[in-house]
Amino acid sequence: SRIIISCPDDLVIHVLSGYFGIQSFTTQQTCMTTSSILPEMCFFFNSFNIINSTCEAKNKCLLRATANQLGSGDLCPSYQKQLFIQYQCVNLSLLEKSINKCNNTN
Fold first, then answer.
1. Which parts of 1-105 are beta strand (E)?
2. Which one-letter DSSP state was computed for residue 57?
């Protein structure tokens, strides 16, 4: 599976959170399984960094929900995984100001 994230032409993507794997809360909320036995969490540890580097501050991005793109070493091979991303479309200059504010050590 793949997902294309896009914003209106004058805005860019700001990734708030994301993962590829399993978290019981979102799995139950999206009716992903009928099984009552699921691991609490089982996700690719580097998936947020990959999502962020692929999409942050871009107008559009494409992600493939696969272990090859979003990590390696499947810790829960017998379970389906989900690609979960929370993001906002924001003005680039506003995003840059907030990043600079967070990096300001004065």
1. 2-6, 12-23, 41-43, 60-64, 82-90
2. T
d(CA 28, CA 57): 31
Q: Does residue 27 register a pLDDT over 60?
A: no
Return d(Cα 21, Cα 75) in angstroms, integer.
9
Q: What three-state secondary structure class fits 44?
A: coil
Please state the rounded mean pLDDT for residues 73-84. Answer: 77
Count other Cβ atoms within 10 Å, centred on residue 100: 9
CB 70 within 8 A of CB 83: yes
DSSP state of 74: -
- What confidence score (pLDDT) does residue 25 get? 57
pTM over 0.85? The answer is: no
Q: Which amino acid belongs to residue 66?
A: T
The residue written with tokens 């914003």 in the block is 7
SS3 assignment, position 31: coil
Is the pLDDT at 106 greater than 60? The verdict is no
- Can you read off the two tokens belonging to residue 71? 């990590």
